[in-house]
Amino acid sequence: MKLSYIYFLQTNSFSWKELLMGSEDWSFLMEAAFRTLIMFSLVLVGLTVLGKRGVKQLSVFELVVIIGLGSAAGDPMFYKDVGLLPALVVFIIVISLYVLVTYFVGKSKKFENLVEGTPDLLIEEGTFAIENFEKEALGQDEFFAELRLRGVSHLGQVQTAIIETNGGVSIFFYPDDKVKYGLPIMPDSLNDQTKKIKVTGIYACTFCGYAEKIEMANQHTCKNCKKNLWVKASNSKRVT
After folding, report:
1. Angle between helices 84-107 and 28-56 (to 10 degrees)
2. Does 53 fall in a domain?
3. What's the rounded Cα separation, in Å, for the pair 162 and 123?
4. 60-86 tens-digit pLDDT
5. What is the pLDDT of residues 113-141, one digit of tens each?
6. Measured between alpha carbons, how far is residue 15 from residues 5, 9, 79, 80, 110 in Å?
7. H or E stretch including 202?
8. Which of 113, 133, 161 is at the close of a domain?
9. Pair 92, 139 in one domain
10. What is the DSSP annotation of 52-116?
11. CB of 216 within 8 A of CB of 200?
12. Under a CB-based contact definition with an 8 Å cutoff, are residues 204 and 195 in contact?
């Protein structure tokens, strides 16, 4: 029993060196610092080549380039068996491809659309552009939060909303005197959606945002999307 306990201690002994350094020697700390200095400098040079646009407004293609540079820089910083020259080759290839693709993007609109995508209309005259909205990886709650951050309380305040190629949303508003009735987008505003219209008034479709005056009815179908869930529409002015 005593021999078994000693064997257990020997095979399961705690080592600060393994915890802090893994399988490397203490001397690797200086090498890791040197590797980090080199790879940091390469990343800095790479981002300088990409320019301000490549850093501030990332398209899908540019995001891939940034991830590629980061991956190439990370491993050589702290893995001793990863050499610096292969990482340098990766940097040269990634940056060269970026420069090449950027050149063709400037020469061909079709190629630009293929690589970077195109802006999509999300709202038109206070109503969802359903086909474009559904193909974007953008949840309704997330989109409503984006609108609320711009001071929007219902879709009737928005003339046009566009999702740009970098994922940002551009919003163009109606002037106060032209605000329409629209779907309210405040938290819990869709909790009272109903099929039965008990009181004549202006209602907004909860699916597409289309607003219209509806007489009392057990059920009413939206002219725009053919759905039948409604909430009371709002025409309040935007608070700025």
Report:
1. 10
2. yes
3. 7
4. 677 777 777 777 777 776 676 766 777
5. 777 777 888 899 999 988 776 666 567 77
6. 18, 12, 20, 21, 59
7. strand 201-205
8. 113
9. no
10. HHHHHS--HHHHHHHHHHHHHHHHHHH-TTS-HHHHHHHHHHHHHHHHHHHHHHHH-HHHHHHHH
11. yes
12. no
Quick check: is 26 in a domain? yes
Query: Looking at the domain assignment, is residue 5 inside a domain?
Result: no
Task: State the DSSP string of 110-133.
Answer: HHHHHHH---EEEEETTEE-HHHH
Instruction: Look at residue 183 and tell me if it is in a domain.
Output: yes
Tally of residues, the chain: 240
Domain count of the chain?
A: 2
Asked if 165 and 106 sit in the same domain, the reply is: no
- Whether residue 120 contacts residue 162, with contact meaning beta carbons closer than 8 Å, is answered with yes
Farthest-apart Cα atoms in the chain, separation:
90
Which H or E run contains 16? Answer: helix 16-21
Range of the domain at 106: 12-113
Q: What 8-state DSSP symbol labels residue 197?
A: B
In this prediction, residue 57 carries a pLDDT of 56
Among residues 180, 187, 165, 178, the alpha carbon closest in space to that of 210 is found at 180
